[in-house]
Amino acid sequence: MGATAWIDRQLAPEGIDDTYAESLVSRHYGWSRLSALEIKRITGDHSAKASPSVINAALTRMRFGNRVLAESVVELMADHVYVPIHGKGEPFITEFDVLLREHALGRYADFLYAAVTSAALLRELDNTASTKENPNENLGRELLELYTVGRHSYSEDDVKASTRILTGNGIDWSSMGYAYRPEDHAVGSVDVLGFSDANTDASAGQDMLKRYVEHLCHLRPTALRLAKRIARRYIADEPSDAAVEAIAKAYLDNDTSIAPAVKAALTHPDFAASVGKKWRRPTELYMTIARAAHAQVAVAHGDVNAGDYFNLGTYGWLIKEAGHEPRMYGSVDGYPDTAEYWMSAGTTMALWDGAQNAVDGDKKESGRTDWPTALSITAGQPALETARRISWHLTGYAWTDAELSGVAELLAGLPGTGSAATWTVTGKNLTAFAEHAVRLCFCSPYAFLR
């Protein structure tokens, strides 16, 4: 299968069998699919017990799933329209995750309208307290600054009008769902970036909001802003204007659809030339290690049915220690996607330590990883060629012979004499030596580069 065919297949995930990953989610983290009202009833109004299931379900899909590109786009959009798991919107975080997965590859206009009328975002950005008498600008401002046209593209008058359009949109706490209250809606003419409405009928506020979001999503600054985020995720920290323009064009030509925009990024010449230009974030690094192990779950961590609510397992704990626990960034704009943020001395040391632990595997869940089996390493194989093969498989880069010599020496059992060209894979303590060789691969600069 060629690259374009693979991209097309991945962008139609419903056609990809993902039985194993989804069965794990259903069996152990089923709460991640429930509504806020169901979570309230099951947990006795302790929604904090359910929110880790969203993290565990996401990591399970990343680790065992076949819909790898779709899952990547889900996390991209989760960073773009960001609701932290343990924030004010926590009681609604499970249904917000369902919303993300439903809309991540569809029309951005549909996704954004669903988001701004979701209880999670309305609560997180205080629109539940925004009324005609006391408007709260948080959501009205972020709708412009973060989700659509971006900073410097709007005025304070635009923020005020945007906020008025959003008044009346809140939560029915008895049903734990979205509710529109006309009595809280501020009527009166509004004009925002070319969108205008007489806004004389409070009962028509929902329809006006839908038209307003649709208008914002079709604006060129919105297309460019979303295109740059997509390009920054997949191509470069500072993508070229040509790449951003091509992605924005695909977005606008397809009525704000996200999947064609992602395809435009992945088929642009800049993507093919981007090897080595993106730094992996911690979750990507650890999930690469986990997927390479080819482990199967024996005893699931964090199983909600067993009351093990807050256990994220070995990989989840390592990701948390590295500062990249899914949906847990401390700001409203989601985790940064540039190397500068993730390359501090402290983070690098944490990732080196974490990579060494991750190579062991999640021993309580799946047992210690058997790397000779996972990588088809057997005694007597030429050590240098085996090192070349596994380093390529684990990192995606072709190492020089000089770089491979340390890996080959470990595979050969630290022979002390001879050269890499003559060493063979040891038959003594192979599991331990193979494990150390894998550690060396994953602690190399190559493992940190896409």
From TrEMBL:
Q: Name one Pfam family in it.
A: DUF1800
| Protein name, entry field | DUF1800 family protein
> What species is this protein from?
Actinomyces timonensis
